[in-house]
Amino acid sequence: MGLLSDPNRRKALTTLLTRLNTPICVVCYLAGIAWFMGLAFEPFTLRTYMSENAMGSTMVEERFPAGERALATGREFAGHKRKAGGMPVDWLVKTMQDRGLEVFTQSFSRTLPFPDENKERYMVRGINVYGILRAPRAPRTEALVLSAPCSPDNSNNQAVGLLLGLAQYFRNQIYWAKDIIFLVNEHDLIGMQAWLEGYHHTNISGMDYTPLQGRAGSIQAALSLELSSDVITSLDLILEGLNGQLPNLDLANLFHAFCQKIGVMCTIQGKLQRSDWDTAEGYTHAVQTMMLMVLKQASGRPWGDHGLFLRYHIEAATVRGVNSFRQYKTDTTTVGRLLEGMFRKLNNLLERLHQSYFFYLMPSLSRFVSIGYYMPAFGLLATILLLRALDLWVQLGTPTEVTEDGVGEVEPVSINNQGSFDSPLTHIYIDLYSKRHSTFQMLFISGEGTEQGWRVLKLVALLYLAVLLGCTALINFSLGFILAITLVPVAACVTPHLPKAVSALAMVLLSPGCTILYCVFIFQELQEAPVSLSEGWMLFLSVISQGILDHSLFGSLVYPLLALLVYPCWLLLWNILFWK
Amino acid sequence: MTSGCFVARVAFGVDARVEKPNDVTGPVSSSEPGQSESAAVSSGGPVAAPVSEADEPAEAAAGGAVSPPDQCDEELVLRPLRSGDIYASFQFRTQWDTDFLHHGKKVSHYRLFPKSLGQVLSKFSVRELHISFTQGYWRTMQWGQPFIPSPPGAELWVWFHNTVEDVDGNWKELVNVLSGIFCASLNFIDSTNTVQPSASFKPLGLGNVTDHRFLRYATLPREIVCTENLTPWKKLLPCGSKAGLAVLLKSEKLFHSSFHSQAVHIRPVCKDWQCTSTAWELRQTLNVVFDIYTSGQGKKEWSLFKMFSRTLTEACPLASSSKVYVDVTDNPEGELFDLSPVTPLLSTAVVLGDRRTYSVYDLTKKETFGQLRSLNLVLRWKGESGDMLRPLLHAERYVAGFGLQTGEIHTLIYNNHPYRAFPVLLLDSVPWYLRLYIHTLTVTSKTRENKPSYIHYQPSKDRLRPHLLEMLVQLPPHSVTEVTVQFERALLKWTEYTPDPNHGFYVGSSVISALVPSVVAMDTNSTQERPLFSSFFPTKEESSYFVRVYTEPLLVNLPTPDFSMPYNVICLTCTVVAVGYGSFYNLLTRTFQVEEPSQSLAKRLANVIRRIRGVPLL
Lengths: 580, 618
Known about the structure:
The structure holds two protein chains of two kinds. In chain A, a hairpin with a 4-residue loop joins β2 (102-116) and β3 (121-133). In chain A, α5 (67-84) packs across α7, α15 runs antiparallel to α20 and α18 packs across α19. Chain A contains 20 helices and twelve strands. Chain A is an alpha/beta fold. The longest helix of chain A has 33 residues, at 371-403. By secondary structure, chain B is α+β, with helices and mostly antiparallel strands. Among the domains of chain B are: 76-299 and 321-326, no CATH class; 393-556, Immunoglobulin-like, CATH 2.60.40.740; 564-590. Helix content of chain B is 21%, strand content 31%. Chain A: InterPro entries: Gaa1. Chain A: It is a multi-pass membrane protein.
């Protein structure tokens, strides 16, 4: 700690940092990227494991037999849906009642701020139907939710059929300790939002809805089911929720464990796991899977109906059946058995899921990267900002010291010698004060147009960006990291002395807006659905409008974050480039 | 008042002669203003009788020709519910013709009344005791009103005799003793979950003591009820589980149900219809609802054998009456279900504001059992299961909001009566760790504010007592009244958190007591012989009947630290302290001095030489 008290050594350090600033920054940047890419390398990741004992050791037997009947119910549902031209409320109510559930409905309406062109809706009006299976001898304090969206097109009928089939089967079992809510929500996320707000009696999005008549206590976990074909090849697990929130990792582990037990192919981000991690292809595959997760998480939107549960501290995930052209098919009975197993284990829970991780990235379904491993990647990028800030700080302090070098160092010391200020801390105060004083002077008095002026402005911008990105990364690592990748070089390099045209172009290309555009292309590429430039542009526009919609409908924070906090920072940097 | 005192003192004197006086509680009479006179007047002779009969048979004759022994009745009501489920309600009543409380003497002879309870009554000067253990929540919307309602978990309320000086001490000992008797964790009842309701729980027996200082009420919403609670409960029965209706009480079937509730109610009652003397009544009730889906195995058919895996072969020999009632009100023509064997005996009773018709099977009569010598009631459903009911009064409760800082408790009370308004008493007991913001309390009916005419609020004290909120609210006809109050979740001390595998923190049910307007005239004539199930709550008016509704308990999550954190915290703080403290200490204590540049040896030598030469130093 001689560093703090010994002026010479301190000086040596600052000179070192100032002199080697650029190389250190470059190394940090490259190291940050390399660290991030290394996260997908299997030896560096951890194998997932079940933390929650109640779900781990207890064996449950899955006996759901009625897949065919569930499909028939699904077809019946499809017929009634066509006839009713929307949600067949009466039929659903009656069917659920026949299965011995307590059935309730909730109607809701919402006018969007502007028409949603992706889903072609503007004034949304719908009805949610839900039935509660009351657990025998349970006091209505805890519940689980199984939901299936009722979509306007001809998809997802099988999901509703399976939901009703499971309801019938579950009703005849004696072992339930938690009530189970079977929910069919209309207009996907909007219906789900209305139902959740009704259930918790909150109104954060200005939705009109009728109050719920029946409740079942605090919801412990939820699964959303999407199934559009009679047979499936694999089940995809979707975890990313609103604002990049993720459910407890144990929920993913549970799904994975049952897939392996029952023998269903399971994927995450639509990607199967590969065993050849030591080959280049295997590694690339893992990187792609992880990048998809990062991009989805960064978007801050709920990627399935489960995404809205997370705000209420309810662990939730969406299970989506995928039917591709593989040979190996899984029938609905097996999917039903899988869900039955998951529900029985969730039913066994003695506590909320809290044992495992809430912050993680998954390069495959059996591997994860915890927050302690991925944060350094961001930390390395953020260090650059701090180093540049330090450099500027030193530069700003120098003029006063350069001219009267010997005096600056000796004078406070002589005061000490006289005995009135005995403490070296005073020395630091004086030192800092004199610097800050000059800084303020520069900022407010002589700031405009001078060389000092842009330095001060850049210092402020750097610190602001560092704090902003740091906070973002804590909440949503992916968003923070992606923003850091593009904004940090800009913030680190920008000075008024660069060639204007070229740097302006570079700045525009590295602006948050363009970052979104690249993300769109990369995302499409990773999903193996590459798009042309014009298609990409259209997608980009729709992503922006979706972002604004998500903000006004569900309270997603990405749009206000970019518009109100990140862009102003970028404009500061722009200002530095064109400093006069 | 004076005459009451006088008579009671006489009674005391009589006692003293009959048995050795045991002056534990002192002369009770002087401090007993509210005791009804007629009871006191007549208590002398007959009360002493059974005691003397026991201890000193020679004096039994002197005690009088009137020496009615203890009495015991048993009863089972089966009510087919519209949902297809079936509700079975057992009631066992034991009447104990003694009255030790009035005389402060010890009673050491027991006939039918369980000794364990009798000793508890006398030791702790209990006037009334009501305890219930319930597993499950009564679904009013599907099942209608139960005969005797109870909240999920354990509920205990006790009126102490008004001579008791240290009520809290007695209460504490009493719950520990009861905890042992019923094998339940009643010992978790302490001052943090005990309240003294001012209006909601009035004595149900004789005596009009209403000073709520002598009342204690507590619930344990998380109490799990299972066979270990059933066994001691069955042991209190006069015939045990050997004979009579109690043979049906097999735990493997009773706990294979949707709802299970067992209770013990002890209160002083009139011994006969003239109320010339008092007696202790012990009512043991057991309510169970069987689910057609899980135990019906697909067939819509119920029988005693299917429900209880036993049939009835005899009445309890000690019981003076033993009856099985089947509710056939909705089934006059047999369109809903078939009941066999058919009984010619029908009885009507006014229960819960409704005139119901029951088929009665009297187990004391031989012909009831038929040729097979066993009674197996069979009920075959014909109709479809009906819609949900609209009971006149029901309630629900939930926690609104999200996050771990604040929340809001909503209580919805439904009055489904088309044109009558009626008042209800709402009792809420909320643990201290939910800090109620009482200024946010709102009561709204039909979107308008509904001002309660009576509010009794006792704020909580941290770690000492819970919040108690009692309100008298008028429910407009055909309306939903919503009571909301906001709360803040307290941060507990780290030792106060329950062990890690916990569901959360429970808040007991709120209790809604009301006199609900009745469709038919209620029976106010208490002298008449009535079935047990219709005679628990005393009715005073013809036009209304008493109903108590319990809401569901709440499960609340409190902000819980990650308890693996202390290790990390210790590591982190140690590091911070070591590094930070070290360097700061260093900075604060170090003094700086301008140091003369130290000279090398050669230089010093040169200087010495120079000084000698008288040349200026280097």
